[in-house]
Amino acid sequence: MSPQVLPGTERQLAFRRELLDRGHLIETGVDGVYGLGPDFEDVRRRFDALVTRVAAPDDAVRMHFPPVLPLRTLEATGYVGSFPHLCSVVHAFEGDAVEARTMAELAEKHADWGDHLVQSDLALVPACCYPVYPAIAARGRLSVGGVVVDAGAAYAFRNEPSEDPARLRAFHQREIVRIGEPAAVEAWRDRWRDRSVALLRGLGLDATCDTAGDAFFGRAGRMLAATQRRDGLKFEVLAPIAGDAPTALASFNYHRDHFGALFGLELAGGGPAHTACLGFGEERVVMALLAAHGSAVSDWPSEVRAQLWEA
């Protein structure tokens, strides 16, 4: 069964058509899932390199993970309870030959054949920082000063199909994670919140920062989001793309000791570590650049190209 698709505004639909017509996005037939054209992908990779130069320190621990993670990790984070409308689990076939034929017949008719699959031990990654916490915890107690982890750019998946091209179901999330003492983690979050605004403004984007709340599920979730805003636990860096309001290009989340306690991240002096993460939505950044500077990348302002095409 196909999920409900969020309708796009007239401006969003027009911008999607422009991206498709110029070859920046490649149609797949499914809303929120696109291939990336050569210019789009080139800019995405160059922006990723810019983040490495600006935001990832030389002593960062570098880790790269696939777009799936153990189901137990997803369950441990509490994501299933908080975002049941966004998460997706990998299912696989484990039946016999008769069931296989029945399933194939249903698939050929584009009928529902999900009843012939069983839940596996994997889930699609909804946030690229999630694999980091158990991996760092497995290394043992943190050293003095904690650690910065550069998790690179990996695919994340959230099951929220939309006609808005900026709301993708599968997208690259460039993730940097800070783990350590509360004061150090908060200072890191605040410092990079400001620097990320400056980075995006340096690319000619009208970037601003504001408090935000996650899209938690249900009434209790709305209360959690309100608490996030009140306590300043989540910030977003926003810039215009094609909506009536600016779109979040990056987010900063301060988790306090939530993941430290869940995964056994222990400070050098004992006790659970605090964590924060910085995540850039790379496709959104590229779309914001295309919206601001035009579809012809070769015609972008020289000062923007100088930063992205820096060796």
Quick overview of this protein structure:
The chain is of the alpha+beta class.
Would you write up a description of this structure?
By secondary structure, the chain is of the alpha+beta class. Helix content is about 40%, strand content about 25%. The chain has a seven-stranded mixed β-sheet with strand order 3-7-8-12-11-10-9. Strands 4-6-5 form a three-stranded antiparallel β-sheet. It is globular. The chain starts with 9 loop residues before the first helix and ends with a helix.
Q: How are the secondary structure elements laid out?
A:
Layout: H1 10-21, E1 25-30, E2 33-36, H2 38-55, E3 61-62, E4 68-70, H3 71-77, H4 79-82, E5 89-93, H5 97-108, E6 117-124, H6 132-137, E7 147-157, E8 170-180, H7 182-201, E9 208-211, H8 218-231, E10 234-239, E11 247-256, H9 258-263, E12 274-281, H10 282-293, H11 302-308
Parallel strand pairs: 3-7
Antiparallel strand pairs: 1-2, 4-6, 5-6, 7-8, 8-12, 9-10, 10-11, 11-12
The overall average pLDDT, rounded, is 93
Give the low-confidence spans: none
- Let me know the number of strands: 12
Provide the CATH top-level class.
Alpha Beta
Q: Number of DSSP helices?
A: 11
Query: Gap between N and C termini, in Å?
Result: 47 Å
CATH superfamily: Bira Bifunctional Protein, Domain 2
Cα-based radius of gyration, to the nearest Å = 21 Å
Helix and strand string, N-terminal first? HEEHEEHHEHEHEEHEHEEHEHH
Second rung of CATH, namely the architecture: 2-Layer Sandwich
Number of domains: 1
Percent range for β-strand residues: 25-35%
